[in-house]
Specification:
SsrA-bd_prot, single chain, 158 residues, SmpB, alpha+beta, 7-stranded antiparallel beta sheet, 4 helices, 7 strands, Small Protein B, Chain: A
Length: 158
């Protein structure tokens, strides 16, 4: 529901660049994420990935599955599990909106990025998305190539 955050005010921890190619991105939401201390320290290192992850509603809560946050090496035996489900913190109205879109409209909840906001809190930008077919992906790639070629032509002429 909120717009994408200002790039000058946050530090990116993980980015899902593949999501914009595989899915048609609809409405986006900013959610908090419930993490342990070692997960926060590891996220600040910037080696986590969310390219294979997804979010789903279960029991009135939204959970992030398959997000990889590597172990924090200095944590010793008190480390976290790297791919454990993590709870996303959203308002009840937003959770209801997401659940309805997934059940009725056949959409998917896809994480786009994990970042630290201006206060230093870890946030996840999630989006309601619809999967693209192969011909849609080809059209996207064709349009991207044409825009790149067009900008080259305009740059060379002017």
């Amino acid at each position: 529901m909120t717009a994408a955050p200002d790039s000058a005010r946050y530090k990116l921890a993980a980015d899902n660049r593949r999501a914009r190619f595989d899915f048609e991105i609809g409405q986006t939401f900013e959610a908090g994420i419930q993490l342990t201390g070692t997960e926060i320290k590891s996220l600040r290192g910037g080696r986590s990935t969310i390219s294979d992850s997804y979010a789903a509603e279960r029991g009135g809560e939204v959970w992030l599955y398959n997000a990889y946050i590597p172990e924090y090496l200095e944590a010793n035996r008190f480390n976290h599990e790297t791919r454990r489900p993590r709870k996303l913190l959203l308002h009840k109205k937003e959770i209801g909106r997401l659940a309805v879109a997934v059940q009725r409209e056949g959409m998917t909840i896809v994480p786009l990025k994990i970042y630290f906001n201006a206060k230093g809190r870890a946030k996840v930008e999630i989006a309601l998305a619809r999967g693209k077919k192969l011909h849609d992906k080809r059209a996207t790639e064709k349009e991207r190539d044409w825009n790149r070629e067009k900008s080259r032509l305009l740059r060379d002429r002017g």
